[in-house]
Write a structure and sequence with these properties.
Strand content: 5-15%
Number of helices: 21
Shape: globular
Length: about 575
C-alpha cells in the first residue's frame, strides 16, 4: 500500500514538472507590489539590504474626549486615507507607501478600538510590551500621557542606545540643530527635540518619537481663539461716549491689538503704546468692556469675554503649565553623573503669584466665566461644556474662547464663521501671560504646551525588527513637512479668509516657535498614575495641581499651601519612579 502511494506521489510531481516547463517564456511574472511608488528626490535611503518583513503598528482609535478630534487615523496610517478626498489624504498615502518601500517592510495597522480614552491605555501597553510575544506590536501611536506613564516602567526601546542600528536621525548623538531640525521652527534646538527630551528623566534615554510625522503634537498646541469681528468693536471709540474701549486707550484697529500680543515676542519690556503684552490684565479689561455691552444676563447668550470649561483639565493645564512656574525642580546629581535629583520646591512663591493672578481674574468679574455642565444646559461629560463654548463663540457671544487645542479649530463651528456673515473669522492667540515681567523686570516669554491628549509614537522594547522600525519612522519624519504644510494651509489658514488669515499665519508660526518642554505636566501626571497603579489610590488625580485649580473654579488663594501639603508625598513617589527609570537597562 505504501509503495502504491509513493508511486502516485512521484507521478504527480513528474506531471507538475512538465506543466511548469511548458510555461510560455514571455509570461509576465507576479506583479511587484511596490511598482508605481515614486520615491521623491532627496528622500532618505538606507544602503542596507533587509529581508522583507512585517512590522506591527498599534494605534488607538479616535478619542471621544471632545478636547481634540484626533487626527490619528487621518495622518498616521495608510488604509484609511486611500480615498484621497483631500489633498492631504493623498500626501499621507504616498508618504506611507514610500516609507514602507525604503525600509522594505509591510506594515500591519491595528486599531485598538476598545482602548478607550486617554489614560485608559497604560496598563494594556505595559502588558503587551513586557510579554515578548511575537504578536506584540513593534510600534505604538498612542496618547502622550499613556506612553509617558508606560515608558517610566521601561516599556520602550532607547533610541539613543548604539547597540542596535538606529536610523532615526533626529536623535542621533551628532544631531545638529542648525541643519537637522525636522520642524524648521528656528528656536534653539527645535521644540520637537526639546519636547522629546523633556519626557526623559535623564539625558541618555529617549523613548517617545517627536517629529513632523507626529502631527497630533502640532494639533495639540494650546491656543486661545479670538472673535476678530467682536474685537474690532473694542479697539475704537464708543459711538455714544467717544471713549476708546481698547486696553491702552488709543487702539483704532485690530492690527493694534495683535501688536500688543506680539510685544513679548520682540522681547520689549516697555512700550508706550502697547504695554505689557497679552496678560490676564488684558483679559480682565476686555471682560469689563465686552460685558458692558450685554443685552442678556445669561452667561452664554449674553456677552462673555473669556469662557473656559470648568470640568476639563485642559484649560487648567493650559493656564498653569504654559506659565513659567516651576512645579518640579531638576538638578544634576553630583554623585551620579548623567542622573538627576528631582524635588518639589517648597514655598513656591512663583506659584503663589500665578494663583493670585487667576483668582483676580475669575473672582467676582462679570464676563469671565467657568462654564459648568449646568451652564451649558446639558448633562454628560465635560466635553459638552467645550462644545457649548465653541458654538456660542461661533455665534458671536464669546470674545476669547478659552484654552483649546489648536486642532479643534478645524471643526465645523469655527470654520463656518467665514460663511455666516463674519468676514473677519476667528483669530488664533497664545495663552495669556500671568505676569508681564519676571522679578528682575525682564519680560516674560510665552510658552505653549503640547497637551497630553496628543498622539505620539514609540518603538516597543519587544520590537522584533528595531532597525527597520527606525528606518520606517525616520522616512515618515523627514518626509512629512508637506503634510503639515497642507494641514496649515487648508485647515487653519486658507479656510479662514479675509482679515484674520494673514494674522493667523503669523500667529501659528509664533505659537509653534514657543513650544517648550512639558516636563512638569508630563511627570506630574505620570506620578499620579504611578500612585494609582501602585497603591490602588483612586484619588491620586486630586494631587495634580491643574486638577486642584480646576476643581476650585480657578479661584484658589491657598494653592501654595495645598501644594506644600502634597509635595512630600508626591516627591516620595517621584523618587520611586526615577529609581525605576535609572535601573532600566536597555
Amino acid at each position: 500500500m505504501k509503495t502504491k502511494i509513493l508511486s502516485l506521489l512521484l507521478a504527480m510531481m513528474f506531471i507538475l514538472g512538465m506543466l511548469a516547463s511548458c510555461k510560455p517564456e514571455d509570461e509576465t511574472p507576479d506583479e511587484d507590489p511596490d511598482a508605481g511608488i515614486v520615491i521623491p528626490e532627496g528622500a532618505p535611503s538606507y544602503n542596507v539590504t533587509w529581508d522583507k518583513t512585517e512590522i506591527k503598528y498599534a494605534l488607538t482609535d479616535e478619542d471621544a474626549s471632545g478636547e481634540l478630534e484626533s487626527g490619528c487615523k487621518k495622518y498616521y496610517s495608510g488604509t484609511e486615507v486611500t480615498g484621497t478626498t483631500e489633498k492631504v489624504d493623498g500626501l499621507v498615502s504616498n508618504r506611507n507607501l514610500a516609507a514602507a518601500k525604503q525600509a522594505n517592510v509591510t506594515v500591519r495597522f491595528d486599531y485598538e478600538t476598545a482602548a478607550g480614552d486617554w489614560g485608559a491605555n497604560i496598563e494594556t501597553i505595559v502588558a503587551k510590551t513586557t510579554t515578548s510575544s511575537s504578536q506584540s506590536p513593534d510600534i505604538y501611536a498612542n496618547f502622550v500621557y499613556d506612553l509617558s506613564c508606560a515608558q517610566l516602567r521601561g516599556c520602550f526601546a532607547n533610541l539613543l542606545q548604539t547597540g542596535k542600528a538606529n536610523y532615526f536621525r533626529f536623535v542621533q548623538p551628532d544631531y545638529n540643530p542648525a541643519s537637522d531640525n525636522y520642524f524648521d521652527a528656528k528656536s534653539g534646538e527645535g521644540y520637537f527635540f526639546e519636547y522629546m527630551k523633556s519626557l526623559s528623566l535623564s539625558d541618555d534615554k529617549m523613548f517617545i518619537l517627536a517629529s513632523n510625522y507626529c502631527v497630533d503634537l502640532v494639533r495639540s498646541f494650546l491656543v486661545v481663539p479670538m472673535n476678530v469681528e467682536q474685537m474690532a468693536t473694542l479697539v475704537g471709540e464708543d459711538e455714544t461716549t467717544g471713549e476708546n474701549l481698547s486696553y491702552t486707550g488709543d487702539m483704532t484697529q485690530v492690527s493694534d491689538f495683535y501688536d500688543l500680543v506680539w510685544r513679548t515676542q520682540s522681547r520689549v519690556s516697555t512700550n508706550e503704546k502697547y504695554g505689557e503684552g497679552f496678560t490676564y490684565n488684558v483679559i480682565a479689561h476686555y471682560a469689563d468692556k465686552f460685558y458692558s455691552q450685554a443685552d442678556s444676563s445669561d452667561v452664554l447668550s449674553g456677552k462673555v469675554a473669556f469662557a473656559i470649561g470648568s470640568g476639563s483639565g485642559l484649560p487648567a493645564s493650559g493656564l498653569l503649565y504654559t506659565s513659567s512656574v516651576e512645579i518640579i525642580h531638576k538638578e544634576a546629581d553630583k554623585n551620579n553623573p548623567g542622573q538627576y535629583i528631582y524635588t518639589y520646591p517648597a514655598g513656591n512663591e512663583d506659584l503663589k503669584a500665578f494663583s493670585q493672578s487667576l483668582t483676580d481674574l475669575f473672582k467676582n468679574r462679570d464676563g469671565v466665566i467657568s462654564v459648568s455642565k449646568s451652564d451649558a444646559g446639558v448633562s454628560g461629560s465635560f466635553a459638552t461644556e467645550l462644545l457649548a463654548i465653541r458654538s456660542n463663540f461661533a455665534a458671536g457671544n464669546v470674545l476669547f474662547g478659552g484654552v483649546i487645542a489648536l486642532g479643534s479649530l478645524d471643526t465645523e463651528d469655527y470654520q463656518k464663521m467665514r460663511t455666516e456673515g463674519q468676514k473677519m473669522g476667528f483669530g488664533v492667540l497664545p495663552v495669556p501671560l500671568y505676569r508681564a515681567a519676571d522679578e528682575e523686570g525682564n519680560p516674560e516669554e510665552y510658552r505653549t504646551l503640547v497637551h497630553n491628549i496628543a498622539k505620539a509614537v514609540a518603538i516597543s522594547k519587544t520590537a522584533q525588527n528595531f532597525t527597520q522600525c527606525t528606518a520606517y519612522l525616520d522616512y515618515l519624519s523627514r518626509m512629512s513637512q508637506e503634510v503639515i504644510d497642507e494641514y496649515y494651509e487648508v485647515k487653519l489658514v486658507s479656510n479662514v479668509q479675509g482679515f484674520a488669515a494673514a494674522f493667523n499665519e503669523n500667529m501659528l508660526t509664533y505659537i509653534r516657535n514657543h513650544v517648550r518642554n512639558c516636563f512638569d505636566k508630563t511627570i506630574e501626571d505620570s506620578v499620579a498614575s504611578f500612585i494609582s497603579s501602585s497603591e490602588g489610590n483612586t484619588t491620586a488625580t486630586e494631587l495634580k495641581l491643574h486638577e486642584k485649580i480646576n476643581s476650585n473654579g480657578y479661584v484658589y488663594e491657598n494653592l501654595v499651601t495645598d501644594y506644600d501639603a502634597s509635595a512630600s508625598k508626591k516627591e516620595g513617589y517621584l523618587r520611586d519612579v526615577v529609581n525605576t527609570w535609572n535601573n532600566y537597562n536597555d
